[in-house]
Amino acid sequence: MARSAVTYTCQSCGTQHNKWTGKCGDCGGWNTLAEEKALSSAGPSSKSLGKSRGKKIELTSLSAKEAPPERIQSGIGEFDRVLGGGIIPGAAVLIGGDPGIGKSTLLLQVAAAIARNNTKTIYVSGEEARAQIRLRASRLGLEDADVLLAAETSLRDILTTLDAEKPDLVVIDSIQTMWSDAIESAPGSVAQVRACALELTNFAKRRDVAVLLVGHVTKDGQIAGPRVVEHMVDTVLYCEGERGHQFRILRAVKNRFGPADEIGVFEMTGMGMSEVNNPSALFLGDRDERAPGSVVFAGIEGTRPVLVEIQALVAPSALGTSRRAVVGWDTGRLAMVLAVLEARCGVQLGSYDVYLNVAGGLRISEPAADLAVAAALISSYTDTALPARTVVFGEISLSGAIRSVAQSPSRVREAEKLGFDSVFAPSRVGASDDKEATEKSALRIEAFDELRGLVDRFDTGEGA
Ligand code: TYD
Ligand code: MG
After folding, report:
1. Is 350 close to ligand 1, i.e. is its CB under 6 Å away?
2. Residues 14 and 31 occupy one common structural domain
3. Alpha-carbon torsion, ordered 7, 194, 256, 236, to 10 deg
4. Do residues 365 and 226 share a domain?
5. Are 185 and 192 in contact (CB under 8 A)?
């Protein structure tokens, strides 16, 4: 049965509708529906769908002994680590990030590194001419790398070439510039991005080729064209970082072949992205220990402990409504910590502006940072620095109790390794073996059950 030839696709969430409406019923976006030819009526791969009978699929047992696929390693340790030890042949990996953050630079370096160990690598750019890519390569000192280049946007031509060339790894930079002639809409539109991502993912699976797709991110932080692509691919990496900072963080937000939430840390230098092997040392680089409002948080990013500096500034508000500005942490979480400080500990910050910053451009999502944030806020409010060489971690509950967090021993060990000598931590450490390991360390552990205990260390003027 023929389906209607035209559908309306929401450009923000990707939902398809049969008729045009002003508002997308799914995501609530206004004026986001655009007319598109449906894939099923025009797509080349679906010509015979529905007409002929399917063929029987060969089933195999789950227990079948097959050696795990050998991962393609780039030798760039931080990149391989984010992928869980290298790229799996046949995997489609999406690398998202703001324009100019360094995706093309990193992938050119990765392609060059992989091509070095006899792995056939093709780099297709839809954004830059060959000469521009060569110029970049020579800047990076990679001009004699064995990478095959193409500057092309037609998906049909690219797939035909890839089928003939049989590479092991392909980089597509970027998915938004690719266009498939099966879809009648402009490159970069949701339908195009989705169709191209689908074709390329299928190609990866069919030919057992690793495909790295670059995706630009929209203003509100989603990979443009949009979530649908994230579902299709095996792995989604985000390249984060502040423009003005040299640090770049590559974070796995989805990984079918490895741990999600793993991060790789890079530094953008004149010679491209260079690996940072000891991120904690780098994030704490030029910290002033005696500054009030500065606290070191012992966090866990993926499988690795990372120490970062959290800075707070609490200043009397000049305006009627006080400001709360946050960089690198969740605004809602800050509001919660402020409310607990106010309701449970009597620290009234309502008439103060509060600024919170995670140094180095890292984004923290762990609740374990609560206690560090609270310590930074009180420290700034009372203008008193924390004891020198102290790290802080712990989750704050709404009752004002301090809850234990996972992986306390590795946090403490990392702090010890970097020369810290005391820890503010929850007194209730999760598992019993955890507790033993934590207490074995040479660090002085100051344990808190209640947020009030921390507040009492400072002179807030409340009790006086
Ligand atoms: P690019 O990889 O083009 O970003 P994307 O592909 O994510 O849009 O990175 C461009 C930025 O990186 C640009 O601002 C210049 C900077 N850069 C360096 O600092 N050092 C280098 O060696 C290179 C190649 C780029
Ligand atoms: Mg680019």
Report:
1. no
2. yes
3. -120
4. no
5. yes
Is there an atom of ligand 1 within 6 Å of 302 CB? no
d(CA 449, CA 212) in angstroms, rounded, equals 47
186 alpha carbon to ligand 2 midpoint, in Å? 19
**Residue 188 sits in the same domain as residue 302:** no
Of 410, 375, 402, 407, residue with least CA distance to 390: 375
Share of the chain above pLDDT 90, in %: 55
* pTM reported for the whole predicted model: 0.79
Task: Check residue 4 and give its pLDDT.
Answer: 57
Shared domain for 16 and 101, answered yes or no, is no
Quickly count: other Cβ atoms within 10 Å of residue 281's Cβ. Answer: 13
pLDDT in tens, 47-73: 555 567 889 998 888 887 777 788 999
Q: Is any ligand 1 atom within 6 A of the Cβ of residue 32?
A: no
Please report how the helices 432-440 and 408-417 are oriented relative to each other, as an axis angle in degrees rounded to 10.
10
pLDDT of 260 reads 81
The residue among 213, 208, 231, 198 whose CA lies nearest residue 40 is: 198
Mean pLDDT of 190-201: 90
* Residue 222 burial (CB count, 10 A): 16
In a domain, 12, yes or no: yes
Mean pLDDT score of the chain: 87
- Last residue in a domain, options 220, 242, 277: 277
314, 216: one domain: no
pLDDT at 384 over 80: yes
Q: Coil, helix or strand for 129? A: coil
| Ligand 2 centroid, distance to 242 Cα (angstroms) | 16
Q: Can you give the residue range of the structural domain that contains 38? A: 4-43
Q: How many residues are listed for the chain in this entry? A: 464
Q: Are residues 125 and 226 in the same domain?
A: yes
What is the rounded CA–CA span in Å between residue 230 and residue 198?
11
